[in-house]
Amino acid sequence: MSIVTPLFREAHPIRAGWTPISKHIHGRLSRIELERTIHAATRRIAPFWPLQHFVAVNPFMGLADHDFQTACELISCNGHGRMLMPASFYADQLAQGVVTDVDLTKAFELLEQTGPDSRTPAELRGQLQLLSEAEKSEQVGSGHRLYTLADHADATTGSQWMSLITDEISKWCAAWCDEGQSAWRMPWRMLPLYNAWKRASQFDRNPEINGLSGFRDLVGSLPEMPLEAIDFILDKLELHGPHLTDLLHRYLLSMAGWAGWISFAEQEAAMRGESRDRLTHLLAIRLAYDYALAQGPIMDEGLCDWRRSLVGNKAERQRERERLDLLNILHLAYELRGQRELVACLAAGPIGATAEPTSSKRKTAQAVFCIDVRSEIFRRALETSSPELETLGFAGFFGFPIEYIPLGHQHGSAQCPVLIAPRYRIRESVADADVAELRTILHRRWMRKRLNRLWKSFKTSAVSCFSYVEIAGLLFGVKLVTDSLGLTRPVARPGTAGLDPEVVKRVRPLVNRQRGRLLAQTPVVETGIALKDRIELAANALRGMGLTEGFARLVLFCGHGSSTVNNPYGSGLDCGACGGHSGEANARVAARVLNDRDVRAGLESRGIIIPDDTWFVAGLHDTTTDRVTLFDLDEAPDDLNRDLSDLQTWLTRAGQLTRQERAESLGLGSLAPAGLTTAVQARSHDWSEVRPEWGLAGNAAFIAAPRGRTRGISLEGRAFLHEYDYRLDPEGSVLSLIMTAPMVVASWINLQYYASTVDNRLFGSGNKVLHNVVSTLGVLEGNGGDLRVGLPWQSVHDGRNWRHEPRRLTVLIEAPAAAIELVLKQHAEVMQLVDHHWLHLLRIDPDQGQCHRYRGIGRWEPVSAPS
Predict the structure, then answer these.
(1) What pLDDT, on a 0 to 100 scale, did the predictor assign at position 358?
(2) Distance CA 505, CA 557 (A)
(3) What radius of gyration, in Å, describes the C-alpha atoms of the chain?
(4) pLDDT on residue 466
(5) For a pLDDT cut of 70, what percent of the chain falls above it?
(6) Phi and psi (nearest 5°) for 391?
(7) Are strands 524-527 and 514-517 parallel, antiparallel or unpaired?
(8) Rounded distance between C-alpha atoms, residue 467 and residue 471, angstroms
(9) Which stretches of the chain drop beneath a pLDDT of 50?
(10) What was the pLDDT predicted at 686?
(11) Which of 57, 181, 193, 511 has the CB geometry, 3.0–4.6 Å to 281, for a possible disulfide?
């Protein structure tokens, strides 16, 4: 009997991309069919960026060609997880009045579930009540789930095969993928993953000790190529048929963490023009363990029972579909309430927001911030500090896709969105240093780094690690105490490690194109940007941020980064537009390019005239402490000293206001301003702090409009704010760029926070306190298991309440409907995001300020604010 009243009188039709389980599971596949099936399964795996440049990524990226509701069914069946909150969550929202009958009715209408099977709000509430009670009494079934053989054995016999298999595969993946953490390296790392695993398994008795007798011989008998091994195992297990794509997807999701990292590695290789298929290797390895189970511990009766379970039960699938349909209606109603509050907030803003400013007085300063939601609070605070200043929002790499190479290094990091590859290499040097001094500085830095590496080797080697504790342990007592009290920083900042403080102040990026050696005895390489390209980059950046006229005397490019220690996910708090790094490098490069007289002369020929007395300055907003540091001030003209002093005063005041607004969420609301500043500074040094800041938790909206539309409105650090004036973009090129890059990245961020909230077990990384870094790539929760993906529990929950509300991104664009629709028609991947309901698209009417919801090409409906 169904636990909820059926929402439809007839079963749903098969949705696009959803393959029903066939009763006919026998019959060999041809090689082409097998490759096509494996590709269909592997492309569903979203990439997972490693810790060094961890960025928020859409964990449902591989399911973008499915609509949201179908993806919910896939994740429930194949991932044994959920994409919606439990029924009790929505019951609480209804009980508290957060969601109303108006929202329920509208959600039902938008999902086009009206007609003879329509349900009134009262009926929906009744169905939710039944489902909530069933959840509390644990009478809700898990719905139809695809099981691997290990899954099935664990569920029916109480064994722990899946735990053993996960630990075994994880240890070999960690050894093969290691990027320098281990002292002893895997001897077969140069072989492909599957072949390296085969060689290593010949020496590993652990599976046999734990019950997989003859495992080494079995692995030795498998084909040498992973595709042939998969074909061989599928034939032996009698797994062939229309259900196979979903089953192989399930196998990959049983090792979701390592599958995600391998998917990232394949994507990076593809950007370099290389073709790899490592996910097929991982799939072959995972299938091999189930084949070993079938050859040993699992009897024929268990195998037959497992194969029957793959067919599934039609009534069970229908009940699960009805449950998800109900939750989907409730979830949309929950999101609609937030949307209507946002619309009401915008409606209460300035009248005639897009009109030209009434004052023609030239501003003293303009500050361009990243669209990051944390910048919304700081921008609002800064604008209240002085009427002589205005702010703008633009992607934090400021339009300069670079690889930034630190002083004394041969390679650098990609300082641009992960959707694009860096086009230019920028290296650092020391201002006013001759060749002899530069050599001395580099030699000193590398000697210090070598000594640090030797010291680390001494601490971790098998011979000296125990004597190290005996001899030198007490010497670290004072440092341990000062680090614990937040008085000192446990480790040096990576960008300044090995450099004297005075040298750090003189480090500069070199933006002009040149050829030379980055280090002695290394190849000659080209770095910097040619003048023609600098002019092109500058023009595109200024047009993208809507800053082509009315320049102030000072223009601040303010990147952002965080200050944390002992935090594997520290890069996740940095700038996503800069590839998970601090935005300092991009801000300094952009400022230097735009201060170049040759670049300005080139911009004049493109219709962008920058006044001679305008100076661009770079800054960095520390999102943990809300302090802003300005760079290269010694290069500014003397007649700007007073303006710079005023700007620093305004930034200091804005930082204090921002800290006060954030204090309550950090549990520091009772502190006076001075104490609050000290407290947030201490959090940035505290190696035991699991929540140094909340990052992008709470993100819910992306607004592309002139700042006048949102100025003076508190969006509570929940909105990405991108400057856009459609009147300056007659061809729609800037709008196209916004909708295909920043909007997509914002959706990635939103969906990662969303997924880590609705199901942290599957899409998050669990308890931060239990994390152990593995291979410098990711973390394990504890001392084993799969590589964890997504965000820690502490990033979305404060121990009592959710800090992130699981809502899909609401995008609001102030532009004519035709311009928005043109971008959708030209970019299928963006159309997918919208039409498949991975985000909500609204348009702000430029003349009336009314918001309209996108319902399809040529179909927009007004959105009303809550009464």
Answers:
(1) 43
(2) 19
(3) 29
(4) 67
(5) 90
(6) -120, 155
(7) antiparallel
(8) 6
(9) 1-27, 114-116, 352-353, 355-358
(10) 86
(11) 193
Identify whether the C-beta of residue 704 lies closer than 8 Å to the C-beta of residue 844: no
pLDDT at 473: 67
Global pTM value = 0.92
Contact criterion met (CB below 8 Å) for 261 and 46: no
What DSSP element (H or E) covers 245? helix 244-253
Cβ-contact 753, 804 below 8 angstroms:
yes
Q: Tell me what the pLDDT averaged over the chain comes to.
A: 89
Residue 13: DSSP 8-state: P
- The alpha carbon of 142 is separated from its chain's Cα centroid by a whole number of angstroms, namely 29
Structure tokens at 722: 């991108």
**Quick one: angle between helices 742-758 and 733-740, nearest 10?**
20
Rounded Cα distance between 391 and 364, Å, is 12
First to last CA, the chain: 40
Diameter of the chain measured on Cα atoms: 87
Q: Which pair of tokens denotes residue 286?
A: 């995972």
| Per-residue pLDDT, 27 | 46
Separation CA 630–CA 207 (nearest Å): 57
The predicted-structure confidence for 478-507, as pLDDT tens digits, reads as follows 777 777 776 666 665 667 777 888 888 899
Q: How far is CA 792 from CA 76, 204, 372, 446, 535, in A?
A: 21, 33, 20, 35, 42
Amino acid making up residue 818: A
The DSSP code sequence of 319-350 is HHHHHHHHHHHHHHHHHHHHHHHHHHHHHTS-
Return phi, psi of residue 772, to 5°: -130, 125
Domain ranges for the chain, please list them: 149-311, 365-440+504-690, 448-502, 696-867
The tally of CA atoms less than 13 A away on the side-chain side of residue 280 is 19
Task: Please give the full DSSP string across 368-430, using - where no structure is assigned.
Answer: EE-S-HHHHHHHHHHHHH-TTEEEEE--TTTT--EEEE-TT-S--EEES-TTS---EEEEEEE
Here the tokens at position 231 are 């074909």
Under DSSP, the state recorded for 581 is B
Q: CA-CA distance, 380 to 775, in Å (whole number)? A: 41
Q: Please say whether the dihedral angle defined by the alpha carbons of residues 578, 767, 262 and 58, taken in this order, is positive or negative.
A: negative
Q: How is residue 246 written in tokens?
A: 């979903």
- Cβ atoms of residues 590 and 399 within 8 Å: yes
CA distance 127 to 181: 53
Q: What is the secondary structure of 787-850 as a DSSP string?
A: PB-S--GGGTB-SSSBSS---PPEEEEES-HHHHHHHHHH-HHHHHHHHTTSSEEEEE-TTT--
In sequence order, the 6+-apart residues with CB closer than 8 A to the CB of 473 are none
Token readout for 75 is 């994740």
Identify the pLDDT of residue 11.
32
DSSP for 666-678, written as a single string: GT-TTS-HHHHHH
For residue 806 the two structure tokens come to 């699981």
pLDDT of residue 782: 92
Task: Give the tens place of pLDDT for each residue, 8-57.
Answer: 223 333 333 333 333 333 347 788 999 999 999 999 999 999 988 888 89
DSSP for 508-552 reads EEE-B-EEEESSTTS-EEEESB-HHHHHHHHHHHHHHTT-SS---
Q: How far apart are CA 146 and CA 163, in angstroms?
A: 17
Residue type, 57: V
Centre a 10 Å sphere on the Cβ of residue 629 and count the other Cβ atoms it contains.
Answer: 14
Q: Where are the beta strands (DSSP E) in 562-657?
A: 615-622, 627-631
- β-pairing, 413-415 vs 402-405, is antiparallel
Place of tokens 């907003």: 621
The letter for the amino acid at 142 is S
Query: Measured between alpha carbons, how far is 90 from 103 in angstroms, rounded to an integer?
Result: 12
705 DSSP β-pair partners = 723
pLDDT on residue 17: 35
Cα distance between residue 584 and residue 507, in whole Å:
12
Q: Apex CA 434: angle with CA 432 and CA 435, to 5°?
A: 145
Token pair for 315: 């009534």
